[in-house]
Specification:
This protein is α/β, with parallel strands linked by helices. The protein has 3 domains: 163 residues, 3-Layer(aba) Sandwich (Rossmann fold), CATH 3.40.50.300; 82 residues, Rossmann fold (3-Layer(aba) Sandwich), CATH 3.40.50; 130 residues, Rossmann fold (3-Layer(aba) Sandwich). Helix content is 34%, strand content 18%. Strands 2-3-1-4-5-6 form a 6-stranded mixed sheet, with helices on both faces. Strand 2 and strand 3 form a beta hairpin. Helix 11 runs parallel beside helix 13. The longest helix has 14 residues. It starts with 8 loop residues before the first strand and ends with a strand. The C terminus is likely disordered.
Length: 408
């Protein structure tokens, strides 16, 4: 399942015919999910967009029953569990007072991936929650069961209130990309190459996001291609307070931009905004420690048409092989697809900016590597390191001292 929507994701889990789709319809107050009395109507995870007051747009993910059977059923259950890595909140749907190994398995995965969740007993108009099940859930999860009826959703607003309380604010409150390092009236120069990788007639999403963030902070955005920079700097007054460039022209920007002007990249901005910035800072210098035969995992967070000079598939492998002087192997994984083999097979993970996915999806994408002690870095930070301008690239956000990291 590809993570291509940065809105908060809420996953609905439970046995077949527990009313997961009906619950989504009740929350949306419209029929957005197919409902049937036939068990197994939902066979694959299905995304449904809706609005929740005070949170805004969210993506509800309707999943296959956790008790599906047969070879095909096992694959459906596997895909249901994969969804857990991509969500910001889970809702475990019970019915008919059933709480057993099926539910325990989902809870185990939710806890493993540190996903907050609610426990809802649906169809409570037909059968109320028993004291025994209520106590079992309390003992197993530390949570109270919320009784609900999708057919008579009188407690809809109360359930939405619980969702708003349980979902992390970081999933829906947008923080500023550069607002804390610029001031009102500052001039920010953006260097944006227009090459074969640039989309026809538009800018890439990180560039658009940064321009909007600059304007939201009452600063001034000036956009130019890399070959215009030298002449532009002679005409600009005042000079930029900050320069942000595409990672591919980092070296050119470093040579052109005076040392006293802070310089970073769109990818480095995204690394701090939604990536695991602390672990990127720890992992990036490990690029100098690679050995012959090491496998490098490159994670793209979207699927796109591959060009002959693709940044992740062509340029970074070329630069890294030249930088390290080692014979390295590269594996590129797009979207949120499964990583081939074991994560321990890899010596380094290089993650893209992640502009097309949620922060939770990105963090959980990197979690297996970090848990295994494998260094992780980001496209922009890795490129800056390989070109000898790493300290300058991260200087707007942190101060690197020998043996320590000081945050500004």
């Amino acid at each position: 399942m590809k993570g291509r929507d940065a809105k908060p994701h809420i996953g609905i889990f439970g046995r077949r015919n527990n009313g997961k789709s009906s619950l989504i319809n009740a929350l949306a107050e419209q029929e957005v999910a197919i409902v049937s009395n036939e068990p197994g109507t939902t066979t694959d995870p299905v995304k449904k967009s809706m609005e929740i007051t005070d949170i805004g747009a969210v993506v509800m993910i309707d999943t296959a029953g956790t008790d599906d059977t047969g070879e095909l059923g096992k694959k459906r259950v596997g895909r249901t569990r994969e969804v857990i890595k991509t969500i910001d909140l889970g809702i475990l749907v019970l019915a008919e007072n059933r709480f057993d190994k099926e539910e325990a398995a989902i809870i185990e995965q939710l806890d493993k991936w540190e996903v907050p969740y609610l426990v809802v007993h649906n169809k409570s108009d037909l059968e109320a929650v028993s004291d025994l099940v209520r106590q079992e859930v309390r003992t197993e999860t530390g949570r109270e069961i919320f009784e609900f009826s999708s057919i008579h959703p009188s407690k809809r607003d109360e359930l939405i209130g619980q969702i708003k309380t349980a979902i992390p604010e970081t999933a829906y409150l947008t923080k500023s990309l550069v607002g804390d390092i610029i001031s009102q009236g500052d001039l920010v120069l953006l260097i944006t190459p227009i090459d074969e990788e640039a989309p026809e007639g538009r800018l890439i999403l990180p560039q658009v996001q940064v321009i909007r963030d600059i304007l939201d902070n009452d600063a001034i955005a000036v956009v130019a291609k890399e070959r215009e920079i030298d002449s532009l700097l002679k005409r600009l007054s005042p000079l930029p307070s900050l320069v942000i460039c595409d990672s591919q022209v980092f070296k050119k920007a470093d040579a052109s931009i005076p040392e006293e002007i802070p310089l970073t990249s769109f990818s480095t901005v995204l690394a701090r905004y939604k990536g695991d910035f602390e672990n990127y800072l720890l992992g990036t210098p490990r690029l100098s420690e690679l050995e012959d035969g090491d496998k490098i995992l490159i994670l793209e967070s979207c699927t796109h048409q591959v060009s002959c000079d693709d940044i992740g598939r062509v340029k970074i492998p070329r630069w890294l092989s030249n930088f390290s002087g080692k014979q390295l192997e590269y594996q590129v994984v797009a979207g949120l697809s499964k990583v081939p083999g074991k994560i321990s097979d890899y010596s380094m993970v290089i993650q893209c900016g992640g502009c097309m996915i949620t922060r939770k999806q990105l963090i959980n994408r990197l979690k297996p590597a970090i848990d295994a002690g494998i260094p992780v870095t980001n496209y922009g930070m890795a490129i800056a390191y390989m070109h000898g301008i790493y300290e300058r690239a991260v200087a707007p956000f942190v101060k690197l001292d020998p043996g320590s990291i000081s945050y500004l």
